[in-house]
Amino acid sequence: MTSPHTLLAAWELRARKELGQNFLKQPSTAEKIVKAADIGADEVILEIGAGLGALTIAAARRAGRVIAVEKDRQLIPLLKAELLANGFEQVEVLEHDILSLDLQKLAHESGQPITVMGNLPYNISSQVVVKLIQERAFVRRAVLMFQKELAERLCAAPGSKAYGRLSVILQYCAHIRVLREVKAEMFFPRPKVDSAVLGINFKTAIAPLVGDETLFVRVIQAAFGQRRKTLRNALAGGLPPLGSEGALAVLQQAGIEPRRRAETLSVNEFVALTDVVKAYLDR
């Protein structure tokens, strides 16, 4: 694979900062990521932000089918040329915004849940995670590269500063592990921070299972809405139907000290709290 700097210059293109474009410089880095992810020949890969094709080519060597999604119209001809030059013209290239892509339709056409992978643009990383959570019935697993800070937040344990809304929501429905770290100097243009690749395997069975997942998200958002506040005050302010007395009542019923703060609660405690809140609101 030609270096990103040389490729872009040859096509009279530049990396677009507004799209969060940082391209892997070495094919060996992409190969190591795909190897660590243990991509199998039976998997259908949906790659987010294929860019110049580094991960695309590495994935195509192992997977049964690869669908490369790229939003930047200017990169599409370059990407197709790189795939052709490497003998992977069978890779499907889609010009599309991943946030509006119909994953259910893709999974249905593929006859199986898809594996999502990609070097995520920093400006949509959280939105992609939320989309995958919402549409996880059609996703087998995800192998995603994040800025290291966000990767740490997603993996964070209760009681840590990094633990927050996305930590709870993702850990509720998925097993997460760090596959490898990627230094900033491995990208062009070089970003300011290092990255980490996470393997996200969505659970086939969730236990304990929350009764109302939409309310679960609302409770978590309310709890973390003002981190310095106690849970009682945060829930009273973030879930107006409860009020201060209602917040106290549901916390006590869930066996949670009202003076605790959101970052101290485990995923299971948030599940228990949500079920109590639902029963309280449904009275």
Topology overview:
Elements: H1 4-10, E1 23-24, H2 27-37, E2 44-48, H3 54-60, E3 65-70, H4 76-85, E4 92-95, H5 103-110, E5 114-119, H6 125-134, E6 139-147, H7 148-155, H8 165-173, E7 174-182, E8 187-188, E9 195-202, H9 213-225, H10 231-238, H11 243-253, H12 267-281
Parallel strand pairs: 2-3, 2-5, 3-4, 5-6
Antiparallel strand pairs: 1-8, 6-9, 7-9
Helix pairs in contact: 2-3, 6-8, 9-10, 9-12, 10-11, 11-12
Brief summary of the model shown:
Helix content is 41%, strand content 18%.
Which key phrases capture this entry?
two-stranded antiparallel sheet, single chain, seven-stranded mixed β-sheet, 2 domains, Helicase, Ruva Protein, domain 3, Rossmann fold, elongated
| Order of strands across the main sheet | 4-3-2-5-6-9-7
Rg result: 21 Å
Order of helices and strands: HEHEHEHEHEHEHHEEEHHHH
H/I helix tally: 12
CATH superfamily of the largest domain: Vaccinia Virus protein VP39
Shape: elongated
By CATH reckoning, the class of the largest domain would read: Alpha Beta
Helix fraction by DSSP (H/I, runs of at least 4): 40-55%
Q: Which structural class fits the helix and strand makeup?
A: alpha/beta
**Count of DSSP strands:** 9
Q: Which whole number gives the mean pLDDT?
A: 96
Taking pLDDT < 50 over at least 5 consecutive residues as the criterion, the unreliable ranges are none
Largest sheet: 7 strands, mixed
- How many structurally independent domains? 2
The termini sit apart by 63 Å
Per the CATH scheme, the topology name of the largest domain is Rossmann fold
* Strand residue content: 15-25%
CATH architecture field of the largest domain: 3-Layer(aba) Sandwich
